[in-house]
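Worked problem 6 (solution included).
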Amino acid sequence: MIKLYFFYRILQNEIVSNDQAIRNFAKSLESALAAGATDAPAAAARAQAAAAAALAAALRRYTSLNHLAQAARAVLANHHQIQQMLSDLNRVDFRVVREQAAWACSCGSAATAHRLEADFKATLGRGASLEQWAAWLETCVRDALAAHERRADYTARARRLLLDWSFYSSLVIRELTLRSAASFGSFHLIRLLYDEYVSYLIERRVAAHNRAPPISVMQRPKVCTYSR
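Solution. The predicted structure is:
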């Protein structure tokens, strides 16, 4: 319900006026519950702590997405800014980006990279709304993971996709920085939002694959310990 509440408001272009109050609540949730569970059985305290951590992470994620989405709307609605972004993007040497990404990423074929670059420029050029960008990102994630549906490596591949996406987008931002792009600030904001939204989409798909609630995917993994 928390997820649906925040994303409904984002896509409906509504501002959550009490975002900061929610973030403060999330920040203090774990410590407050831990203080109240001092006399509880150990197993119950651990279960409560895990649930509180997952809920706090979800609240932080969705309020952050809401904040970024509202800021990005102003950029995406500015025709002059969009034209500047498109001009700056056309100066990026994507051949160099693809060559460097190919060494570190499993980003698929060169044709796939070309298609994504062309789709991104076309979507930007036609002044797509935030909702249209969200649909495009969801299509990208769905297509990238389609071959791994119902396979044991689905979760591992989804995590790899998140790393690949982040690395590739960082290379593009680097190229814009080196060229002193006038629209760098706008691209930086858009990149933050899209990275966060792709992460959300991947978490949701992993949860569906594992038949688990999305909030469980956000839980912090146990720290590995090694003995000599």
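Discussion: The radius of gyration is 20 Å.
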